[in-house]
Amino acid sequence: DAGVTQSPTHLIKTRGQQVTLRCSPKSGHDTVSWYQQALGQGPQFIFQYYEEEERQRGNFPDRFSGHQFPNYSSELNVNALLLGDSALYLCASSLAGKTYSPLHFGNGTRLTVT
Amino acid sequence: AQSVAQPEDQVNVAEGNPLTVKCTYSVSGNPYLFWYVQYPNRGLQFLLKYITGDNLVKGSYGFEAEFNKSQTSFHLKKPSALVSDSALYFCAVRDLFSSASKIIFGSGTRLSIRP
């Protein structure tokens, strides 16, 4: 049973560049959430995708955008990178309708912006 | 607004001793609470959850948590700590006002178990 997989594991970008992170949900899951975890902090909700649409968005600027594909996989795009975007980006999957089931997390993508 | 607070940045315990990692919550309505653990360079792993029912919830790796409504707390506990329990622990609450299955996390507590 494949868990949540994220790629790449590490990424180094320069300020102003754009980045795309990828996530495949756990088998059987149809909902993908993205979180940003800055060093020494708890994960912060970026947005969630279900049925290929953004279902809810956290307090992040429009530079952060996403997409969900028909196979439920998802991408997170960040434009015009800032130094403050350096963080661990976590993808979590779940099954819609299972409101109180825990989220299943991938190991994350460590993004460093120089 | 739903929120959780973890008052301790770090907890140090000797191996074999009991451990407690503290969490308090602030919610409107019934709280749905979770504990997750994060090992270095890894994602978060689910430990246990409280939805309703028994105030003592048992989870993975011998951990348990005690829900206390009067004190609005949900402390994580283990009777006998192992060195391998050393990790970052997050308390979390389901955002009941979210149309999505949004989870709100605390700031985390680093647990260090010394041999």
Order of helices and strands of chain B: EEEEEEEEEEEE
CATH class of chain A: Mainly Beta
CATH architecture of chain A: Sandwich
Question: Strand tally of chain A, please?
Answer: 11
CATH homologous superfamily title of chain A: Immunoglobulins
Poorly predicted sequence stretches spanning 5 or more consecutive residues of chain B: none
Structure explained in plain terms:
The complex is a heterodimer of chains A (114) and B (115). In chain A, strands 2, 4, 5, 6, 9, 10 and 11 form a 7-stranded mixed beta sheet that branches. A 4-stranded antiparallel beta sheet of chain A has the order 1-3-8-7, with no helix packed on it. Chain A is mainly β and 114 residues long. Chain A has strands spanning 5-7, 10-13, 19-24, 31-37, 44-50, 53-57, 64-68, 74-78, 87-94, 104-105, 109-113. Chain A is built from no helices and 11 strands. Chain A has a single domain (5-113), classed as Immunoglobulin-like (Sandwich), CATH 2.60.40. Chain B has 115 residues and is an all-beta fold. Chain B has a single domain, classed as Immunoglobulins (Immunoglobulin-like), CATH 2.60.40.10. Helix content of chain B is 0%, strand content 50%. In chain B, a hairpin with a 4-residue loop joins β8 and β9. The N and C termini of chain B lie far apart (41 Å). The model of chain B has no long low-confidence stretch (mean pLDDT 93).
